[in-house]
Structure formats: C-alpha cells, structure tokens
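go over whats below:
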Amino acid sequence: MCGFLMVVAIRRAFAIPGIWFVTGGLSCCFAGKETAISTSDPVVYDVRMTTTLKIPGATKVERLEVKHALPDRRTWSLFTGGAGATDIQFSSGGRMESVADGKAHHIRWETRDRLRSGEVHRFLSQFQIRSVQRVLLPGRAGNSWEEIGAIPATFKLSSEGGRDTTHPTLKKRAELIRKGASPYDAIIEFSKWIENYMQDDASVNFTTSNVKAIMIQQAGHSGHRAKLFSELCGVVGIPVRTIWGFNLQEEDGRDSLHRIRADYTNSYTWVEVYLPEAGWVEVDPGGEGNPFSIPPNFIRNNSEFPNYSILVRANGKERQPEWVTREKGGFSSDFSVEHIVEFRATAE
C-alpha cells in the first residue's frame, strides 16, 4: 500500500507547435515497506530538449537517426507505467520506444529526406518529471567486506566495477583505503580522493575510458571521475555501474560548458554501487560533500546512451558525428551539432 497520495497538476511550461503528445497517469509512490534511501525536498521539472544539426558539404548522407533519452521511472516519480515522466511531447516524425527489458525509454526520429548539404534539422522533445533529494541511510548500507565478498562473481563481472584495475596507482590507493574502512566508508574515501586528485575540466580532449591520460593530466569532467571511481571499486570488488542523466542547473542550458562543447548542457555522469543490504545506490564520485547525497536536479535517464544520440549513414558507412578540438579551445562537430536542455522547476 502507498504511504500517501499526491496529485501533481500537469503544466506546460513550453509549447511545441505541431507536436505529438503522450501522457502517463499519476499515482502514489513510496511503498509502505522500509527503504534504505531517505527522500526529501520534492521538485517538479518541466524539461525540453532540442537537437539541431546541419548536413555538411562533400558528404552524402543517406539516413539520419536521432534519439532523446527519457528519465527512468523511480519510486518517487509518481507516474505509472513506462518512462518516469508524463506530459511527454515531441516534434513530428518521432515515436516513443523502449529497449528490450522495457525499463529504458526514448524518443526516436529517423529520416531519409532533406539530407542535402546545408540542410538544417531540428528535433524537439519535452516532458515533466518529479524528483527528490535522496541519501543512503548509513545503517542500511551493509558494513562488512565479507558481505561484499559473498556477492556472486558472475554478478560482479556483469557490472563495471567487477574487474581489477591494472593501473598501479589506483590499485595501491584502493587497497590502502580498504584496510582501514568499511565498504560504506571506503566509497566515501574513494570519492574524497578523486575530488582532491582531479581538477574539474570539461575541455580535456581524451575519452573517459583513457585511464592513463586521466591519471597523467589529473583533470576531466564527471565522466572521467566516474571512470576512476569504477576502477577503484573494481580493486575491492564493489559492483558499480554508470548513470547518464541531467544535472539541471542552468534554465536555458547555455552555460560555460555549452561554450566548450555545444552538447554539454545540463548533463552529468554519476554511478550506482551495489551494497548487499541496500541494493543499487546512487553515488556522486568526486562531488562535494557526502557522495551518497544526491540532489533533486540529478535525474537518471535511459541507460542505453547519454541524454541524446545521433547516428548517420554517410558515404556508405554508419557513424556518429565527429567532434574535434578547436584551435582556440573547446570542440566542434562536423555536423554542427547542438543539443540544448532547458527546464523550469517548481518546488512542491
């Protein structure tokens, strides 16, 4: 049975002319059984995503596919069925889809028309989502390495943190922290170490999978921090998996990150760790304060890809747009890609 019933009025903060409209029902949340996560400070967000691209010259484009990720349904979403959002709207030509397990949803457009050089294409979607502040209760974390060791090896190997890292510095650091800490405290110490070790810099030109470059440069964005955290967890056997989603900070989406790369807008990467008594729990590695404390503006999206994706068939090959480093810093795309995430927030 539900702990309470709350009805959220559907508001349309944005208008998309000629849209398709899909709406989900509203219901109560928070099952009556005890939970390991404490929640507070609910906020309702109206979110709009706009992807714009331009067909480049000297490129024969035969097909264009664009996807917008939708939020996962969480206990606190208040929405029943499908994605964790309601008032879902999108520009013409799109359709709502789910992956095989039915847990991840997105809007997908595909076109083979107007793909001549210089043609501009724009794809819009919007939805409403309820989110909360959430934090793991320390007493529900599970407090022994024996419990971690009892997690089946097959389960660990299916996660990103189930494999031992080969980087000597990370291996030594993880083993040192493990000696004097419980799993709960080790996760906190991993996060503190990353915060002190790395400088926040979204302009770095190496991928999140390049651990060697991250360690040498000691810099990167949230995706790089999540990678180091996963490596540390791998040493001590804590299962971990990456989360892609929103960090809704700038209402118009055009902040300093957008100037570095035109699709770095209100987006973020963090992780979930598996603790035997609590299950999968969100962690913000390298963030300030308690890494188990996740603010409402962190909204987990589709686990299949980051907030959006573009796939083109160009000159006979399937590929994604390419991003290259600009001479004066930052990045630019061969398809002039821009992805903007805008929002309006209303506290309940």
Remarks:
- The chain has two domains: 2-135+304-347, 138-299.
- The first helix runs from residue 145 to 149.
- The radius of gyration is 21 Å.
- Residues 2-135+304-347 form one domain.
